[in-house]
Amino acid sequence: MFDITRFALMLVFTVPFLMVILTLGSKRVSPRVTCLAGIGVVMVGLVLLGVGGEADLSTPFSFMAEPVTLSISNTAILLYLASLLVLAGLVWRNQEADQAGMTTYQWVLLNLSLSFGFIAFISGQFMIRYIALDIVGLLAALTVLSTFSATSGLRHFIIIFQILRLGDLSLLASILLINHLTGTLDIAEMIAAAVDLPANVRMWVFLGFFLAVLIKLAIWPFGIWLDRARKSAPRTSFWVSGLLVPALGYYLLYRIVPIINAAAIKQNLTLYSAFVLALLVILFTALEQIKFDRLTQVGGVMSCFLLAAIAVGSGQFLLFYLLGLILHRGLMLFADELSSPVLRWVRLSFPPLLNGIFLAANLRDFPVAFSISWVIFSLLLVGWDLGMQRKPVADVVLPSEKAGRLGDEPFGGFLVSVARWLNEKLEFGVFTHGLVRLSAFFHRIADWMYHNIEGGMEKLWVWIGRKLVALSEGTLRKVEVEAAQTTGSLLDDALNSLAIYEKNVLRKALRWDLAWIPFLLVVILIMLFVL
Amino acid sequence: MNPYQILLSGITILPVIGVIILLVWRKATKTQAAIIGIISESFALVIPIVLLTTLRKEGVILFSVPWIPNMQISFSLELSWLSITFLLTEVLATLAAMIYSLGDKDGEKNSNTYYALLLLFSLGMSGTTLADDVFLFYIFWELMLIASVLLILGWGHGENRFRVALKYFIITHLGSLMVLVCLITLYVNFGTASLTELVLHASSLPINMQVFLTAFFIIGFCVKMAIFPFHIWLPDAHTVAPMPVTIILAAAMLSMGTFGVLRFPFTLLAFESIQPFAIWMMIGGLISEVYGALMALAEQEIKRIVAYSSVSQMGYILFGLGTLTLRGMQGAVMHVVYHAIVKALLFMVVGIIIAVTRERDIRNVGGLGSKLPILTVCAAIGVLGISGMPPLGIFNSEWMIFAGGFDSGVSIVLTVMTLIGSLLTLVYGLRFFGMVFFGVQKPETLPEKSPRALLVPTIAVTVFLIIEGLVPGPLLEWATLGLTGIFGGLL
C-alpha cells in the first residue's frame, strides 16, 4: 500500500542530493533553476508530510546499535517550511547579484544543507540529530570559503566552524549525560526523563543545552560567528548560517522547554540574566556604532525575548512566535538588499508587532512585572532599530577614535561612559582583542610548553643520557679498567714470580736419591684403597 | 588439530617464508621486493578473514605446539574477537604502508632487507596480538621493537637517526622490561606461561601483588602508547623513520599498547586491583589529549605535527580504558581502529606534501589547494576525521568514550573537560590544513601533479575511512564481543 508519509520523507531527503548531482553534472541547467526546482519539490514533500499527520516512524536503519527513528511533528515541518520559503525568495530574487558570488561549490553546499537540515529537524534519535546539526554547522562554515588564495575566508571559516562546534560539543555533553541516566537516545523519552534527573546532573544538562542554543541563535557574545559568515558568504548561501542554523536552534530550544521549565530557580535566573545582559550590551554596542549588522544584532535581541519567554514559563503560542522570528530574520535578509522604504518599515514594525501579539496571547500567564519589562524592552528595541536605520552603517572604530563621536550622542553623560567602558573593556578588551589575546596566550602557552616542558624533557633526556654515560664511564673506569689494570698487574706479578720460581727450580739438578718418596706415597694410596 | 588451527599458524609462518625469500633473493629490485612483501603480508589479512566464520561459531581458535616442554612454554596462538580486531588493523596498516612504499623513495637501497624488516615488524605485531603464551608474547613484542629500530637505523632520514633509534629503543625497552617483570612474576607464581591458564588463576594472587602488577603493566604499555610523559620517543621516531615505517608506527604499533592493557591487566587481574588506577588513567588520558594537541599546535615540522596528534589521540584511548565501563572500552577499541585509518591517511598526505614540495617546515608550504585538489580533499577528510566530525569514524569512538566517562560516575567535570578538549584537535587540524592548502603558493614551483603511486593508496584509505564511519556496526559488534572476556565478563 502506498504510504504517503514515507514517500514524502524519501522525497525531501533525496531530492537535494539529486540537485547536487545535477548541479555538478549538468552544465545546461542553471544551478539556480535546479535549486529552485529542488526547493519546490522539498516544500511539496513537507506539505505531504504535514498532511500525513504527526507520527513517530521507525526505520530499518540503526546507528551504533540504537534504532534510527523519525519524529514527524507539525512544529518542525512548519519551521522548516518557513525557512525554505525565505530561501526560495532569496534564490529567486538574488539571481543577478549572486551570479558572481554563488559558485557551483556554493550551490552544492546549499543543496546539501537542505537534506541535513531536514534530518536535523525530524530525527527522533538524538545522536542522528546531533550528527545532522554538526554537518549543517560545517556546511555553514564552508559557505565562507571561496578560493584557496584568500586567507581571510579561511580565518572566517575557522572561527565559524570552531564556535559552532563548541556549541555542538556542549550539546553532545548534554545528550550523553541524559543518555547515561536513561539508557536511550530517543529524543522524546530523553526529554521526558531529563525532567526527573538529579539536580546537579540537570544543571549540567541545562548548561550544555543552553550554550548550544546561545551559539546557534548567535546571541551575544556568541554572535561573532554569524557576523563573520555575513561578511564572507554570498547572500543566498548565507541562508544556511543566517536562517537554517538559528531555525534549528529555535527548534532545539522548543524541544527542551520541558527541561528548562523543570529547572531550578538559578537556571531561570541564568536565562533572565542572559536576556537582560544581551539586550543591554547590544544596545550599548549599538550606541558605540560598532559595525551594526541588523540580522545578527536585532536577531540576537529577538532571540533573547524568546529565552525570556521560555524562562518565565513559555506560555501559549510559542510555535507562532518561533515562526515569527524566522520570518523576521528572512525579512531582514531581504530588507538589507531591497531599498523599498515600505519593506524597511515592515521590518521595523515586525518585532514590536510580534512581541505585542505574543504578550497579548499570554497576558494571563505572564507575571505583571515581566509583561511590563517585555513592553519596555520591546519599545527600546524599536527605538534602537529605528535609530540604527537612520544612521549610516560604519565600520569598526577603535575606542580611541570614538571619544569625540560619543560626545555627540543624545544620551550623553553616564550612559555614554558606561557604553564606552563596556565597549573598551568588554567588546574590544574581551571579545575582540580578548579572543586574539586568548589565542595568542594559547599559542604562548603551547610555545612555552613546547620549549620548556617538551624541550625540557629533551634536556632531561640528554641530562639523563649524559649522566648514564658518565656513570657508565665511571663504572667502566673503576670497575672494568682499573680492576683490569690491577688484575693485570697482579697477574703480571704472579707470572713473574712463577717465571722466577720455574727458573730457580729448573736451574737445580734432579735429586734421584729422593725418587722413592712419591713411589712410596703411591703404594700407600693403593694399600689404603685395597684395605 | 583441525585445519583451522593449522591455518591460524599460517599468519605467523607465511610472512616468515616471505622474509626468507627476500633475504635469499638479494638481487630483487624494489618493486619485486615490495610485491613479495605485499603478497606475504596479504596472507596475514586473508587468513583471519577466512577464519571469521569459524570464530563466530567457536568464539576462539587455538593453535598450540610444545616449545620448551620442561618449562611449560609452548608456541601457542589464540585468535579471539579482541585479537582479530587489532590483528586486522595492524595488517591493513602494514599493507597500506607497503603499497604506499611503491611510490615512495625510501627503501631503494637494500630493498630486500627493507621489506624483510617491514615483514618482521608486522610479524612482531601479529604475533603480539595472537600469542597465548607469555614468553611467546614477549618475543614477538621485542621483535616488533628490534625490526622497527633497524628500519630507522638503516633507512631513517637525517644524521641523528642513530641517536633517535637509540632513544626510541631505550625508552620503549624500559616499558617492555616493566612488562617482562610482570610476565615473569606470573610465570613464577603459577608455573605456566599459558595465558589461557593464567586467566583462570591470576586473580587469585594477593591483591597487593595484583596492584603492583597492574601498575607495572599499565606504565609499561603506556610507554608503547606514547602517553604523556612517556611519549618522548614518538615525535623523533615518527619524524626520522621512512614514511611507510612512520605509517606503521603511528597506525599500528601504538595500538599494541592498548591491546596489552586489555589482554593482560584487564583480562588476567581482578577488577579491584585495577579500580584504583581508573581515575589516574582518565586524568592521564586527558592530560595527554590536551598536551599532544597543544604541541601539535606549536609545532612547525609537518611530520611532527601529525606525530604529536598521536599523543593526543592515545589520550582518548587511555581515558576510555580508564572509565572501566563497557562503552568506554568499546570506544577505546574502536578509536584504535579509526585512529589507525586516519593516521595512515594523514601521514600519506604528509608524505605527498613532502615529496611534492621537498619541504618539512609548515611555514615554507602553502597554497597547495588549487594545485593539488584531490590531495586537498583527502587532507580535508583526514583533518575532519581526526577532529571527530560525524559521520567520519572517530566521532563514533569519541562519543562512546565520552559516554563511558559519564557512565563511570567518576566525575562529570573530567568527562566534560575531555569532551571540550577535543575542540583542540580541530584547532591544530585546521591550522595544519589552512597553512598547507590556503594562501600564497609556497614553494613557487611545484610539479604539475601529485605522484600517482602515492595518491592512489591515499585515496583508497580516504574512501575506507568514509565507509568505516558510515558503517560502524560490524566494528562495534567485534569490539563488544572482544570485550566479553574483560574482567571475567564483569562488564
Mean pLDDT of chain B: 92
Helix content of chain B: over 70%
What strand order characterises the main sheet of chain B?
A: 1-2
Query: Pairing-aware structural class of the strands and helices of chain A?
Result: mainly alpha
Q: Strand fraction band of chain A?
A: under 5%
In DSSP terms (H or I, runs of 4 or more residues), the helix count of chain A works out at 20
Low-confidence stretches of chain A: 393-413
Oligomeric category: heterodimer
Supply the helix-strand structural class of chain B. Answer: mainly alpha
Poorly predicted runs of chain B: none
Radius of gyration of chain B: 21 Å
Which features characterize this protein?
heterodimer; A: about 525 residues; mainly alpha; two-stranded antiparallel sheet; about 80% helix; about 5% strand; B: about 500 residues; 20 helices; globular
Please explain how this structure is put together.
The complex is a heterodimer of chains A (531) and B (491). Chain A has helices spanning 4-25, 31-52, 74-93, 95-101, 104-122, 126-142, 151-182, 187-194, 199-216, 224-232, 238-255, 257-261, 265-287, 294-311, 318-337, 341-362, 368-390, 399-407, 413-507, 516-530; strands at 55-63, 66-72. With 531 residues, chain A is mainly alpha-helical. Among the domains of chain A are: 264-396, no CATH class; 397-458, no CATH class. In chain A, strands 1-2 form a two-stranded antiparallel ribbon. In chain A, a hairpin with a 2-residue loop joins strand 1 and strand 2. In chain A, helix 13 (265-287) packs across helix 19. Chain B is mainly α. Chain B has a domain at 271-491. Helix content of chain B is 75%, strand content 3%. Chain B has 20 helices and 2 strands. Chain B has a two-stranded antiparallel ribbon with strand order 1-2. In chain B, a hairpin with a 4-residue loop joins strand 1 and strand 2. Chain B is globular, with a radius of gyration of 21 Å. Chain B starts with a helix and ends in a 9-residue tail after the last helix. The mean pLDDT of chain B is 92. Chains A and B meet through helix 6, helix 7, helix 9 and helix 19 of A and helix 12, helix 16, helix 17 and helix 18 of B.
